[in-house]
Each structure stands twice: as structure tokens, then as C-alpha cells.
Amino acid sequence: MQPIQIKPIENGSITIQFTGEKVHLPEEVARKVSEHWQRLIEAKPRMRNGEVFTATKVEDEANGLRVELAETDYAHYMYSHQLGDLGEYTVRIIHSAVLVITTDNKLVFGAMSEHTSRLGVIQCCGGGIDHNDITDGVVDMKHNAVNELHEELGIDVQDKERVANFTPAYLKFGGPTGKMTVVYTLRLNQNSEEFLKAYDAFATYLRATSEEPEFGKIFTLDRDKQIVNQFISDHADKLDEYMPILLRTVAE
Question: How far apart, in whole angstroms, are the C-alpha atoms of residue 167 and residue 96?
């Protein structure tokens, strides 16, 4: 297993392409995936078996990293993620994460809501790609991150009164799941109190339209090394795989 690593992203340093191919599981693996999925939706009927993209090739090239993806589904991902290594059929996703930073230097992220498949998992805003993020076979991670910000936190990156800066920052790779995380940072023109007030209004709006927020709890954490390390220690069993190294990287 490759250790978890994180490195700064440079412009043009990552190219992600969808090959157009779909993963075809052997009959026995497909049966196990289907049985596991049935158990999951019996517990959480609102779960949807949508598309998931898995890395089939990762190459270091002269001008950066090149990743090729094939399409599978969420049932396959959940089986792979929850029940262990499937060898060549292990799902290795690439996804976005957006670390929001307020004017009073707080780091904003959340714990997933009870209606999601990842109840209680602490992570940044973000998510896996879908077909809407792909144009002519090329994956636009920024498009994905922008949509996730709008859907999960109610933040419009084009709102210059609210958003000071939005930029790609880090790539996390390695770890037990082998997934890659493309991390963006978004700096607000709001302090943490102002952000929370706006988020509460957004969550209230979602519930009024019969939707539930993705996050069941929002954290605004001081960007201080000692505080960050204590938070990681206190929540080690709930933090998504990329969170400890990301939080330690940005702590001051």
C-alpha cells in the first residue's frame, strides 16, 4: 500500500481522461456486489446507484500526472470501499474537495448527514465526478467542485461579494483505498459567524423544498497547529482518509 501523500497542484499538472469504457465484473463478483447493495438500500432506501469513475491507469509524464478512468457504479464502489480489496476490480476514485477558509482564519468542513451513505464521516465539501463534468473525454474537476459547493454549502463561486478566491491547491494520493483527492481552497469575504448565518439560511431553504443538507454538522476550526492536531486526535475514527494530512498541511 502506498502511503498517503499530498503535494501542491501546479497549473496543468493533472490531466484526467475518461476512456469511455465500462467495467465488466466477473459473475461471482457482480453477484456479491448486488447482494451487498440490496442490504445497503434496505437500510437507506434513498441511496441511488449512479455512475462512478475508477482510475484504470495513472502515469507520471513530463508535464504532470495523467489519469485514465473507466465507468462503473456506486454499488460496485460501496462494496469495494466497505468490504476490501477486489484486486484489479478495486474501485479507485478521483474526487474533489474544497476547503473553505473564512476571514477570521477558520477552516470550514462538515460531518455527513444521517440520510447519506457516509453518516458521520468528516470531510470537506466535494464529491465524485459524473458525466456532466466530462467534455470530449476530459474531466473538468473545477466544474465538479463548483457544483458541489453550490449543492452542499450554498456558495456561488461567481459571487464576488462573498468569495475572494477559489483555486486548485493540492493533490492527495495513496492510502488504503488508493483514491485521489483534488483539493481546492476557497477564501471567503465572510468571517465564520457570517458564513454560519448564511449556511443556516441555505439549510432552512433546502428543508423547505423537501431536501436534506448533505452535512449534518458544520465545523469551523481555528487554523492553528495545536488545535488542528487535537481535532484530528479527537475525531480520528470519523475523518475521511485525506483529512488529517490536509488539515496538517494548511495549519499555521
Answer: 12
Distance CA 132, CA 88 (A): 27
Which superfamily does CATH assign the domain made up of 5-250 to?
Answer: Nucleoside Triphosphate Pyrophosphohydrolase (3.90.79.10)
Residues 6+ apart with CB under 8 A from 175: 1, 2, 3, 4, 241, 242
Determine contact, residues 229/245, Cβ cutoff 8 Å. no
Q: pLDDT tens digits, residue range 47-79? A: 889 999 999 999 987 778 899 999 999 999 999
51, burial (CB in 10 Å: exposed 0-12, middle 13-18, buried 19+): middle
Phi, psi of 148 (to 5 degrees): -65, -40
Classify residue 187 by burial, with Cβ atoms within 10 Å: 0-12, 13-18, 19+.
middle
Q: What is the structure's pLDDT at 44?
A: 86
What average pLDDT score do residues 186-196 get?
98
- The per-residue pLDDT of the chain, averaged, comes to 94
